[in-house]
Amino acid sequence: MFLHDPRDFVVRFNLRLPNAKIACVDGNDPPVDLSGFDFVIYHYMEHVLQPFVEFQSCCHSAYNNDRMFFVVGGFNGTDLNSLPNNWLIHPFWIDQVVHFNQTRPSSANILTKPYRFDALLGKSKSHRKFVYEQVQAHAKAECFLMNIDLPDYFSQAVFDLETPEMQKIKQAGWPRDGFDSTLRLSTTASISQTIPAAIFDESWYSIVCETDENRFFITEKTAKPLVDQRVFVPFACLGFMRNLKSLGFLTFDQVLDESYDLEPVRLRRYQKAWQQIEYLLVADPIYVTEVTQDVRVHNAYLCRNTQYWADRLQKFLDKLL
What we know:
This protein is an alpha/beta fold and 321 residues long. It folds into two domains: 9-90, no CATH class; 102-303, Rossmann fold, CATH 3.40.50. The protein is 38% helix and 17% strand. It has 13 helices and nine strands. The strands form two sheets. Strands 1, 2, 3, 4 and 8 form a five-stranded mixed β-sheet that branches. A four-stranded parallel β-sheet has the order 6-5-7-9, sandwiched between helices. The longest helix is centred in the C-terminal third of the chain and has 17 residues, at 266-282. The two termini are 12 Å apart. The model is unreliable at 1-7 (pLDDT under 50).
């Protein structure tokens, strides 16, 4: 056995590999000739944008090896059942959020909150603009803690709940130029890896607008409410919640109509998802919190259950190697 990079996830998850020459490569590293290896495990915490066949062909050429397995954060599709058998989706961003927020107590234990939703939208994209416009036009806009990178938009309420360090960062480039969410904080975590503690403590639920509305990819945007035991409504790709269930998570169909998740027309899907926002605006948050207790606790536990993810990776490798 040979690990091309011994710092990779194989070591981190203590995976057992067969007695063979196996190279493990990170998708961020430059390609090298791995023709002398029996197998290549390619892992990449981001999502793959190309179709499977096209991406595999590029990798086979780049590494000079066609015996490759792929463990990636997301893929060019919306149904996990469509994955080739040598592909596995692993939520790398959940690992990051758990690691950098280990001492954070869950906001679920706070039962008095002035806001119903956080909507931390980030860079402007079409699904985020949809949410932004819905909130801006809403009679209960004051129930949302919202931010979005638009030149003429600034939320004083969100800013006031930021840490002093975050306020300083935003003052340097907000709102005209935006700011870099990968910037490292004094905690060594990046902005994107850090749970917005005061904002979560002051709001009941999260609106999640994932990075890619056309492909399945779990980033810190979903990881934070999962880790923090929050109810959330995603504006994301078709089947996003279905795929979360396939990974072992539970969703909120005890209180929400999640049929929006399987609506193939994107605008209709968002409109149906927004109907759930409307419901949560009027529903008793204590009731919602109680009914979803087991789901939220399960999700947070699963995020932190390293053995579960290690066993899942091991089963994938055992099937193929």
